[in-house]
Design a protein that fits this description.
2 copies of one chain form a homodimer. Chain A folds into 2 domains: 7-64; 71-281, Rossmann fold (3-Layer(aba) Sandwich). Helix content of chain A is 50%, strand content 12%. Chain A has 12 helices and 7 strands. The longest helix of chain A is centred in the first third of the chain and has 24 residues, at 71-94. Chain A is globular and about 55 Å long. The first copy, chain A, starts with 6 loop residues before the first helix and ends in an 11-residue tail after the last strand.
């Protein structure tokens, strides 16, 4: 998905968010803002937004010397999500279709902004049941999972990874070999190896380094391991908007689980803003995985 | 008031708003965005936001050839506001303190976004009575008006000028000579001479060209006439955020009537976002009007 003009105010809001997290003074904020504006004015706009997001975050890190501004927030997000875990498992056990409930919870993990969710309760999770499902390709997903031996699961955020674990456990219980791909280094609140381990994913899946240091999967940056798994796993599940933005039009079937959090993505998907999406996406590969 | 780092996403959102109004295609939007980003990366940040807003709008005009994108919206805003006028007058007549009611209505005129208000009703105006007044220096304003011979009234937006007329009529009925200052050329939906005439202001006040072509009063750009009136009128009333941003710290008493529409202004004023403000502002002049 190419950058849209509507992405630009959003890039700058993300800059302010990071500045808030690092508690920067106004003078430093303006210095960062000037650098980011200068970079954005010369960047290429023919690429998915996460390419530019990564560069914007690197500018902030370079100026401030802070390489992982969301570190504390990520630790707290995991801790908080883990406190919900037993009740989440109970829901899946009681559900008529445990796979569907696990998919739904994984998307709910994408809905919660863990950075600001410390007063979040299980009642709030119940309230998410009323969120419309704008695209629901669950039946395809279920069928493909049933036929698959291996699943590549591309993670999104810290905190959310605990909700992902519920789905990963379901997949493992069905005898699937699961590979759980994380960012290769800290970027915003995206899940890294440490977050996946904190969430306990390693008990049910092999955690792998995607090679991406952006809030999405940059296919020209991925590890050899990721390349092979992306090609060979029968099912690929991608979480969140960032991964969708970088993977939506590649020649590979990918199941995207996310909530639409901005107008650009909602419009690309043809859903309303805020809808839940279970999308059988990507393009059927007709001539080998040319990209890889 | 100096530009704040939080102003930058807002500048870009304003660009997108204009692009929407002109119905530009995505390619042109990106071209404009790149130019604006480049300009903002080199601009001086030690000035009030309207200085940069003006330049940003000029960039859009230059690229698109559209000098007054909000022209139609301004005409419609005035027409719509005029349709409410008889009922507004009735409210003032019935009010216990007609001046206060007129001040309140003038601020309500600042609240309504006329560009999107075509289904707006008088019931909605009633609902504004519950908006908190974060700063209420009305008693000072009333006293100063009673002692004044002349009032300089600095206008803000089209549509809103019809609500201003209600207050201008009150001032004229009290025997005050009123000067109504408008922008010297179109900028966003700010009121120009044409808007003031459409609102019928000329029956009760002398409409004057402020000399400013920005969404605020740039004191290094004002006309000689404005300068003299700004110095000599006993009371100066300034409407809206833009004028506040450019005039708030000058050595001249100014009454600011506005609603806080962004966090930066709310924080500068120490109010909550969305509050109504009747502020005895500016600084008492101790050594002549140095600025002028």
């Amino acid at each position: 998905m190419e950058i849209n003009s509507e992405c630009f105010p959003c890039f700058l809001k993300q800059v302010l968010n990071v500045c808030d997290v690092i508690k920067l003074k106004e003078e430093e904020r303006k210095e960062i803002m000037r650098e980011v504006l200068s970079y954005l004015s010369t960047a290429s706009y023919n690429m998915p937004p996460p390419y530019l997001s990564r560069d914007v975050y690197n500018i902030i890190s370079k100026i401030t010397g802070v390489s992982d501004p969301y570190e504390e927030i990520k630790r707290e997000s995991n801790k908080f999500a883990l406190s919900l875990y037993p009740k989440l498992k109970e829901r899946v056990k009681k559900a008529e279709d445990s796979l569907f409930e696990a998919v739904r919870l994984a998307i709910i993990g994408n809905i919660i902004d863990f950075g600001a969710a410390h007063n979040f309760s299980l009642e709030d999770i119940n309230s998410f049941e009323s969120i419309p499902i704008g695209i629901n390709h669950y039946d395809y997903l279920k069928k493909d999972i049933n036929q698959a031996k291996s699943v590549l699961y591309i993670a999104d955020n810290a905190g959310e990874v605990v909700f992902d674990r519920i789905l990963v456990e379901e997949l493992a219980a069905k005898g699937k070999k699961v590979f759980f791909a994380v960012r290769s280094k800290p970027i915003i609140n995206d899940a890294t190896f440490q977050d996946a381990v904190e969430a306990g994913i390693h008990h049910y899946a092999e955690i792998i380094d995607s090679g991406s240091d952006a809030p999405g999967i940059l296919l020209n940056k991925v590890t050899e391991r990721f390349k092979h798994l992306f090609r060979d796993c029968e099912v690929v599940i991608s979480k969140g908007q960032g991964n969708f933005e970088t993977l939506e039009d590649i020649p590979r079937r990918v199941y995207f689980l996310l909530r639409t959090k901005c107008d650009v993505v909602a419009s690309t998907l043809g859903t309303n803003l805020g809808d839940i999406v279970i999308l059988k996406g990507g393009r059927e590969c007709t001539s080998g995985l040319l990209l890889l």
